[in-house]
TrEMBL record:
<dbReference type="InterPro" id="IPR003305">
    <property type="entry name" value="CenC_carb-bd"/>
</dbReference>
<dbReference type="Pfam" id="PF22848">
    <property type="entry name" value="ASD1_dom"/>
</dbReference>
<protein>
    <recommendedName>
        <fullName>non-reducing end alpha-L-arabinofuranosidase</fullName>
        <ecNumber>3.2.1.55</ecNumber>
    </recommendedName>
</protein>
<dbReference type="InterPro" id="IPR051563">
    <property type="entry name" value="Glycosyl_Hydrolase_51"/>
</dbReference>
<dbReference type="Pfam" id="PF06964">
    <property type="entry name" value="Alpha-L-AF_C"/>
</dbReference>
<dbReference type="InterPro" id="IPR023296">
    <property type="entry name" value="Glyco_hydro_beta-prop_sf"/>
</dbReference>
<keyword id="KW-0732">Signal</keyword>
<dbReference type="InterPro" id="IPR055133">
    <property type="entry name" value="BT_3657-like_N"/>
</dbReference>
<dbReference type="InterPro" id="IPR010720">
    <property type="entry name" value="Alpha-L-AF_C"/>
</dbReference>
<feature type="signal peptide">
    <location>
        <begin position="1"/>
        <end position="21"/>
    </location>
</feature>
<comment type="similarity">
    <text>Belongs to the glycosyl hydrolase 51 family.</text>
</comment>
<feature type="domain" description="Alpha-L-arabinofuranosidase C-terminal">
    <location>
        <begin position="644"/>
        <end position="818"/>
    </location>
</feature>
<keyword id="KW-0378">Hydrolase</keyword>
<dbReference type="InterPro" id="IPR055235">
    <property type="entry name" value="ASD1_cat"/>
</dbReference>
<dbReference type="InterPro" id="IPR017853">
    <property type="entry name" value="GH"/>
</dbReference>
<dbReference type="Pfam" id="PF22847">
    <property type="entry name" value="BT_3657-like_N"/>
</dbReference>
<dbReference type="Pfam" id="PF02018">
    <property type="entry name" value="CBM_4_9"/>
</dbReference>
């Protein structure tokens, strides 16, 4: 599958341009020259394999100013992806082989092949030199060459001049492409100096209407940035299960006692935890408290516990006391920052095994950051676990439910599907960290909490049941994504164990049957008959006897396309296809819009005839502006596309009018290609202020407030105004400049449910665009106009809505930097 953009045309032109200045001195073009391949030592080869050429082995010229032709992909981001002593050779068929050492030990090797040094096949890793014909063997020794004034060590070989010439043009092409991708509105004053208002004639051709996906806008949910615990999941007690696990790199105090303390005589001390008599094997830790009147056990919640005056809160805990103990009352209080009580209730505990106790507290005041305080009226050893506090007002009032304001903000997007649980959380940091759905269902105390890939704790309280229920509540199709039997491609690696549980590892093949069965069981959990299947029965017991009607399942997330991945994916795919042919399986094609995993992933998915693949790309606004034809050239006979993660990223990662409009512009091209692009979801979705691992996100929040971004409104305007039929339209713009034309996006769709026609107009220019809309012949009809506009750096812009008439539309003017959504309610 070849996806050269319109830049391809430019590349073709480049081949006929005079070559760069440093080549001029050998314009009589030798038949052959020397190629020098090396990696720079000062960055431990992180910038990859570099190339230089020379006519005589004396004067060396860099090819691409240090461009890394292939970078090592082994290990976790940042620290591990290194390349030592790369050795480039070529076999008798002309295939290039590059082999390098992965670390200073020199024992572990990486290897990759390329037909042309520009495109590289997937990398392999070895515990010893990969051997003959792979770039390792050979009599050459490393030589020194001075490239750009720096002495480098590498290998030399003779190659035809035309190969170097091709590489030089390739880097020129990349440089040009980078320039386009770096297009930013901050350059607009200069770029568009003197630009007069533009006119657009948009003539709709309803007779050429064609069906498009009605599920284009969905949401990507991942427990990143405290999206679940401390976020969408309404639990107010942090570390309710005492399962926070200490680990290297954890924040100070991040352990089983995190967010808890014992208070006595005005002084706090750490809690004591034990594991001897757990409430459940999956939840081994509990607090052991020598309780006595005057002492208290306190929890600070997630940045405090925010309370609303008059609202009720469900408190619960599990308690046990050694036989023979005298039980008694434990007062449960909520205290404001001054220690003043704002709510009170009590529970009774007694000797014997674990028992659940509950109480309801009513807040007497609004409090931003309250503390939960358990105050015993008894003396004795008390064991407590699963200490929980939930607002009764959750979304739709569900027990163990979701935070109402955040959930409503998601519902307001009108998402047609919801992805869960990631992202990288789905496949985890190493195989032991893969998200296992069975750990997330059933009684809360039996769920198996774990540290998530983003470095904090997941209770899995917002598990698969809560997820399916939320999808049903908001009318979104569930789209679970499960690991393809391999962990995150950026998992840490275990030294000396290349193919074990880390990045390159996979679930051992002898365990794969059970893993495949787990995935099939999820389908039963969602859709099965409770009378026939134990997982379906579990769903019914959780309160949902009817099926959730699962139709999609994603397998894999941005995985490296290696034999280990392929073998496991194929097993899972075939098993689902055989048993549940009605389920659409979505494959994965790497983390970028091009490159090795993208190409290998597409090839693999096409061969297996996977119905849909999940593409991810976080790119600059300039990329989105200049790649609106990305899907126009996709092969219609190949798998469909789920653009599962995307966002426009500016250097300081704001979410502003510039990024929101770049996304809006691109979405016009997605609607145009809605025959092959079936779904899209912006990522990430949620971010708690003060706890973000990733920016930008769609919705920021703290305990009190939800703060949708400008990008949120792009998604909402598209989500609330989606269609299922695309109406092609001719565009006539009175300015022939390409960079002007590319800043104007148009899309016309019809929604068959309402009969409404929806016109989306995006103007990323600093001048207004007068728009004449032709081809929609109706004389009368009510029109709802919504406009999102602002200066490019504006982070507060909100859509403005008004009702207008069809006549007003005949001369509509798009404001500078705006998205206009025109919904025409045509009389039926
Ligand atoms: O959206 C944040 C992360 O980006 C996802 O977890 C991962 O899939 C991608 O790399």
């Amino acid at each position: 599958m070849k996806h050269l953009t319109h830049l391809a045309a430019l590349c073709a032109c480049l081949t006929s341009l005079p070559v760069a200045a440093h080549v001029q001195e050998v314009m009589n073009e030798p038949d052959s020259v020397y190629l020098f391949s090396y990696a720079t030592v000062n960055d431990a080869g992180r910038s990859g394999l570099k190339l230089a050429w020379s006519p005589d082995t004396e004067r060396w010229f860099s090819i691409g100013n240090g461009y890394g032709y292939v970078k090592c992909d082994y290990g976790a981001w940042g620290a591990e992806k290194r390349m030592f002593n790369p050795h480039l050779t070529r076999d008798e068929k002309g295939l290039w082989h590059c082999a390098w050492q992965l670390n200073e030990s020199g024992k572990e090797w990486g290897q990759a092949t390329s037909p042309d040094l520009m495109k590289w096949n997937p990398q392999s890793y070895y515990l010893q030199s990969p051997g003959e014909g792979t770039g390792i063997q050979g009599s050459e020794t490393r030589k020194k060459a001075v490239v750009e004034g720096v002495v480098e060590q590498g290998y030399m070989q003779k190659v035809a001049w035309e190969e170097v010439d091709r590489l030089l043009k390739f880097v020129d092409y990349r440089a040009y492409r980078d320039q386009l991708h770096n297009e930013r509105t901050e350059q607009d004053a200069q770029r568009f100096a003197g630009l007069a208002p533009v006119s657009l004639q948009l003539t709709v051709r309803p007779e050429e209407a064609r069906p498009i996906s009605d599920k284009l806008i969905g949401i990507f949910f991942e427990d990143i940035n405290y999206g679940a615990d401390g976020g969408l999941y309404a639990e107010l007690v942090q570390n309710r299960d005492f399962e926070y696990t200490p680990k290297e790199g954890s924040a100070q105090g991040w352990d089983h006692g995190y967010a808890w303390s014992v208070w006595e005589n005005g002084k706090s001390s750490a809690i004591q935890v034990a594991t001897e008599h757990p409430l459940h094997a999956n939840n081994p830790h509990y607090v052991v408290w020598q309780a006595k009147p005057g002492s208290s056990l306190r929890n600070t919640g997630f940045d405090g516990i925010t309370l609303k005056k008059g609202e009720k809160y469900d408190f619960s805990l599990f308690a046990s006391m050694p036989e023979g103990s005298k039980g008694g009352k434990v007062v449960v209080r909520l205290l404001d920052a001054q220690g003043k009580e704002v709510a009170q209730a009590s529970v009774k505990v007694k000797a014997g095994d674990w028992k659940k106790q509950t109480a309801v507290l009513t807040a007497q005041a609004d409090v931003e950051a309250a503390v939960l305080s358990l105050e015993p009226e008894l003396t004795g050893e008390l064991h407590l676990d699963m200490i929980s506090l939930f607002p009764q007002k959750t979304f739709k009032g569900h027990k163990n439910g979701l935070r109402a304001d955040l959930a409503q903000t998601l519902a307001d997007l009108h998402p047609r599907f919801m992805r869960f649980p990631g992202g990288c959380v789905a496949h985890g940091n190493g195989i032991d960290n893969i998200y296992r759905w069975k750990n997330s269902v059933g009684p809360l105390e039996a769920r198996k909490p774990m540290r998530n890939l983003w470095g904090y704790h997941q209770t899995l309280g917002l598990g698969y049941f809560e997820y399916f229920q939320f999808c049903e509540d908001i009318g979104a199709e569930p789209l679970p994504v499960l690991a393809a039997g391999v962990p995150c491609q950026n998992s840490a690696c275990i030294p000396g164990k290349l193919l074990s549980g880390g990045q390159q590892g996979g679930i051992p093949m002898e365990e794969m049957d059970a893993y495949v069965q787990d995935i099939l069981d999820l389908i039963e959990y969602a859709n099965g008959d409770p009378k026939k299947n134990k997982w379906a029965k579990m769903r019914a017991e959780a309160g949902h006897p009817k099926p959730f009607n699962l139709k999609y399942i994603g397998i894999g997330n941005e995985d490296l396309i290696t034999p280990i991945f392929e073998e496991r994916f194929e097993m899972i795919f075939k098993a689902i296809k055989e048993k549940y042919p009605e389920i659409t399986v979505i494959g994965t094609v790497g983390p970028f819009y091009e490159g090795t995993d993208y190409e290998a992933g597409w090839k693999f998915a096409s061969r297996l005839q996977v119905p849909m693949v999940d593409e991810h790309y976080y790119n600059t606004p300039g990329w989105f502006i200049n790649n609106q034809d990305y899907y126009d050239r996709y092969d219609r006979s190949k798998p469909k596309v789920y653009l599962g993660e995307y966002a426009a990223h500016l250097p300081s990662r704001p979410n502003n009018i510039e990024t929101a409009l770049a996304e809006a512009l691109y979405l016009t091209s997605v609607e145009r290609n809605g025959d092959i692009v079936s779904m899209t979801s912006y990522a990430p979705l949620l971010a708690k202020e003060g706890h973000t691992q990733w920016n930008p996100d769609l919705i920021y929040f703290n305990n009190k407030e939800v703060k949708p971004t400008v990008g949120y409104y792009t998604q909402q305007l598209y989500g609330q105004n989606s269609g299922d039929t695309y109406l092609p339209a001719d565009r006539k713009i009175d300015n022939s400049r390409q960079d002007v034309q590319r800043r104007i996006g148009t899309s016309v769709v019809r929604d068959s449910k309402t009969g409404d026609v929806i016109v989306k107009l995006v103007n990323l220019l600093p001048v207004p665009v007068k728009t004449q809309l032709n081809g929609l012949t109706q004389e009368e009809g009510q029109v709802t106009l919504q406009v999102l506009s602002g200066t490019p750096t504006d982070q507060q812009a909100r859509p403005v809505k008004k009702e207008i008439s069809l006549k007003d539309l005949s001369q509509y003017e798009m404001p500078a930097y705006s998205l206009s959504v025109i919904r025409i309610h045509l009389p039926k």
